[in-house]
Amino acid sequence: MHKTIQPKVTLVGAGPGDPDLLTIKGANALAEAQVVLYDALANEEILTYAPKKSIKIFVGKRKGCHAYSQDEINQLIVDNALTYGHVVRLKGGDPFIFGRGSEEIDFVESFGIPTAVVPGISSSVAVPAYQGISLTKRGVSESFWVITGTTSDRKLSTDVALAAQSSATVVILMGMSKLAQIVSLFQNESKGTTPVAIIQNGTTPKEKIGVGTIDSIQDVVAEKKLSSPAIIVIGEVVRESNKLKDFYHDYLIEKR
């Protein structure tokens, strides 16, 4: 007598890169998975939480090379749930922060398949935190923006221009290819001396960081050969980091 397949899909946020930042709830979901579909930004060490016999399918994107289109991923999730049972969709960071998680949930639920979401620690807050950057700080920053640097039509988000006008900390994901445009928008608001940190592969052993100001950051990126995946943090809180204070102290002395 065959066991009845009970399809179920759980979206799990894998966190920003450090496998220790996976939540306990995320680890428990993986332990019950028959199939895991995982992204490029999800640390493969996390797959060890899934049963050895589970099927593991890479569906991520690396350097513009897409293993599957989003439509194909949606269908893979459904097909595997109907065939094998519990599918864990493992996504870098948090599945609902620029992760297209809601699209996947909507598609799966249209087939009547039960779903659950396990939030993940977003790189937008965790990566700066690893460098001692507090996105809000009493008397320095009352709020923060988290913006995608590249929209679905491959353009810079119009929100960046609005954020540049505010006193908030600005965190930009997927913005390295648009750095020149971002710098220009902040310079237009007379913010050339505003501190900037760019953190590549944050929270992982491959982490690299470049710090400077709006006016200098493009030179820093070229000098340190920084590239994607990286997070851009703009605001006075960058200068407040205990890890980065010495740089800005020395930088200001040099500028005098």
From TrEMBL:
Pfam families hit by this protein: TP_methylase
Pathway membership: Porphyrin-containing compound metabolism; siroheme biosynthesis; precorrin-2 from uroporphyrinogen III: step 1/1
Keyword Methyltransferase: yes
E.C. designation(s): 2.1.1.107
Record key words, sorted: Methyltransferase, Porphyrin biosynthesis, S-adenosyl-L-methionine, Transferase
Record has Methyltransferase as a keyword: yes
Superkingdom of source: Bacteria
Residues annotated as domain Tetrapyrrole methylase: 8-217
Family per record: Belongs to the precorrin methyltransferase family.
Alphabetical list of PANTHER family matching this protein: S-ADENOSYL-L-METHIONINE-DEPENDENT UROPORPHYRINOGEN III METHYLTRANSFERASE, CHLOROPLASTIC (PTHR45790:SF3), SIROHEME SYNTHASE-RELATED (PTHR45790)
This protein's name: uroporphyrinogen-III C-methyltransferase
